[in-house]
Amino acid sequence: MKKHTFSEAVDLFYSRVPEDYTKIPIEEHSDLRMGGWIIRDANNMVIGWVGRRGDVTVYNYEDRPLKNYLE
């Protein structure tokens, strides 16, 4: 198992994202855990996982206006 720096984790993360992916990883919001990096964006939302064993998971979410929930 290899410990990745945040930059290495982001490189692995971007190797798996679709071409139209718009979320940007932010180190200040991301967490290094025993198994790897939990990757978060500027909105502090989880957008992916990069494990020490080389596994990469990419998550995407849709931004929705708050007014839709209040109507």
Structure write-up:
By secondary structure, the chain is α+β, with helices and mostly antiparallel strands. It has one domain. Helices cover 18% and strands 23% of the residues. The chain has helices spanning 6-14, 67-70, and strands at residues 31-32, 36-40, 46-51, 56-58. It has a four-stranded antiparallel sheet with strand order 1-2-3-4, with helices on one face. The relative contact order is 0.22. The mean pLDDT is 91.
Helical stretch tally: 2
The SSE order reads HEEEEH
Question: Strand pairing plus helix content: what structural class?
Answer: alpha+beta
What order do the strands of the largest sheet run in, or round the barrel if closed?
A: 1-2-3-4
Count the domains.
1
Mean pLDDT: 91
Shape: elongated
Oligomer: single chain
Unreliable stretches (pLDDT < 50, length at least 5) are none
- Give the radius of gyration: 14 Å
Q: State the separation between the terminal residues, measured CA to CA.
A: 49 Å
Beta-strand content: 15-25%
Total number of strands? 4
Largest sheet: 4 strands, antiparallel
Work out the helicity level. 10-25%
Keywords:
single chain, 18% helix, 23% strand, 4 strands, elongated, alpha+beta, four-stranded antiparallel β-sheet
